[in-house]
From TrEMBL:
Xref: PROSITE patterns: BTB
Domain BTB: 37-104
Matches recorded under InterPro entries: BTB/POZ_dom, SKP1/BTB/POZ_sf
Species whose genome carries this gene: Capronia coronata CBS 617.96
Pfam families in the record: BTB
Listed name of the protein: BTB domain-containing protein
Length: 251
């Protein structure tokens, strides 16, 4: 289920472009003369404003939405009631700065996903999918892979993913692959924190959607033989329009 707290922590979107990201994402600083679009996000309609040209250049979804003759173009307003505010914050950071921040454990971070920063990033992948933004999606995969290379996938995260993410998607595949690998570690319950692991697993099993193949993979995996799935995140990238990553060099 959705545990987005829907707090409107709207970023200041009247930012200047960061010089480093400018060339990466190919936008002229003349975007500043572009009209401003209002975007209302989530059930509480958190209000964002952003430059129209930037939205159109970064996202084919917004390019379609704001095309000549569309209602959104006439009103200069886009409503996204089903999307998550914290994920939209990350979208704004990406389109203005071209950056995805790594997940870090915060002080007193006692969340059921392992870090407060994890679920917004998972939701950002879903948003990037909706907005048709392959490069951003791949950068989000890299940040998630970096985290799950160190920390196990918690049952609560799997619970969110089985309820909200398309089973055929690369995110779904990555999370399931890594979860199965993590489960094959006898220390899993301890690593996730005994009670939290037990409660999360109970909730997950109650959904009736725990994929059976995950269980068999976990039982049959020998961690000495098989690398962590997230070690090579390109397996979970999309490269329909972007340049394919170079395979890791063999040592
Ligand atoms: Zn790749």
């Amino acid at each position: 289920m959705d545990d987005d707290t829907e707090i409107c922590t709207v970023l200041n979107t009247t930012l200047t472009l960061d010089g480093e990201s400018d060339s990466d994402i190919g936008v002229s600083t003349s975007f500043a003369i572009s009209p401003i679009i209002t975007i209302l996000v989530g059930r509480k309609k958190c209000k964002y404003t952003a430059h129209k040209i930037l939205l159109q250049l970064r996202s084919p979804f917004f390019a379609r939405c704001l095309a000549v003759g569309m209602k959104e173009a006439l009103t200069s307003m886009v409503e996204l009631p089903e999307d998550h505010v914290q994920a939209f914050d990350l979208f704004i950071t990406w389109i203005y700065h071209g950056k995805v921040r790594s997940i870090e454990k915060e002080k007193d971070d006692d969340t059921k996903h392992g870090s407060k920063q994890l679920l917004p990033l998972v939701q950002a992948w879903v948003l990037a999918d909706k907005f048709d933004m392959e490069v951003w999606q791949n950068k989000v995969i890299d940040a998630l892979a970096k985290w799950w290379n160190e920390v196990p996938v918690y049952p609560a995260t799997i619970n969110w993913v089985v309820s909200n993410v398309d089973e055929a998607s690369m995110l779904f595949k990555m999370v399931m692959d890594q979860f199965a690998w993590d489960l094959s570690d006898a220390r899993y319950r301890v690593l996730v924190g005994g009670t939290r692991a037990a409660e999360g697993m109970k909730e997950l099993l109650a959904t009736g959607r725990f994929p059976e193949q995950v269980l068999w993979y976990a039982i049959e995996t020998d961690q000495d033989e098989v690398d962590r799935p997230v070690k090579f995140p390109c397996k979970y990238h999309l490269h329909h329009r972007s340049v394919k990553c170079q395979p890791p060099q063999k040592k």
